[in-house]
Amino acid sequence: MAYTPALQALIQLLTRLPGIGEKSAARLAFFILRSDQAFASELGRAIETLKTQTRYCSRCFALTESDPCSICEDARRDRSIVCVVEEPPDLVSIERSHGFAGTYHVLHGSISPLDGRGPEQLRIRELIERLGRESVAEVVLATNPTIEGEATAVYLARLIKPLGIRVSRIAHGIPVGGTLEYSDQVTVGRAIEGRREM
Question: Which helix (H) or strand (E) holds 40?
């Protein structure tokens, strides 16, 4: 069966989304086609609004519709602690834990020479400038536990420590509900290194 040109165009666009192959794209396109006109219009408006109203906070580079963002504006936040994350979804994950009450800085990536991404492509310069302007006592490095995330954390620690600011790293290890038997060696090693007194 041949797709109509409009359906084929939508499928091609949907395959450009991460994790969406041609079959999934076709399934989504047919869902949209079968939906009522109101849904299709609402979906289109939501995408348009996302693209026109979402921007980066000028202070922390999180996603926002107002500048500065609501986290930077919140007077209840501890401004002496800055948590550095790679991407906006990482910030969302930490916020959902309700375990952090400081502020953030989003790098928008990690150092990855193989991908042609060095420190100059990230928001590192802005972080260092911010640390020079604000009274920050601690920077929490919450980059991902990948080779690139670790390299980024080490690079940042080397830049920040000479400023007289405490640098800490989030703990890595066995997830709650996980078992030692099925965890890899690196994860178990990190769990042992990150142990704390009870």
Answer: helix 37-53
Instruction: Say whether both 34 and 129 belong to one domain.
Output: no
Domain membership flag for residue 62: no
SS3 of 102, please? strand
Query: What pLDDT digit, counting tens, does each position of 49-69 carry?
Result: 999 999 999 999 999 999 999
Instruction: Give the pLDDT confidence of 166-197 residue by residue, as tens digits.
Output: 999 988 877 777 777 777 787 787 777 777 66
Phi and psi (nearest 5°) for 149? Answer: -65, -40
CA angle 41, 42, 47 (to 5 degrees): 100
Dmax (CA) for the chain in angstroms is 67
Same domain, 117 and 185: yes
Asked if 173 and 189 count as a contact pair (C-beta separation under 8 A), the reply is no
Q: Could you give the number of structural domains in the chain? A: 2
Cα separation, 63 vs 87, in Å, equals: 10
Predicted model pTM? 0.84
Residue 24: CATH number of its domain:
1.10.8.420
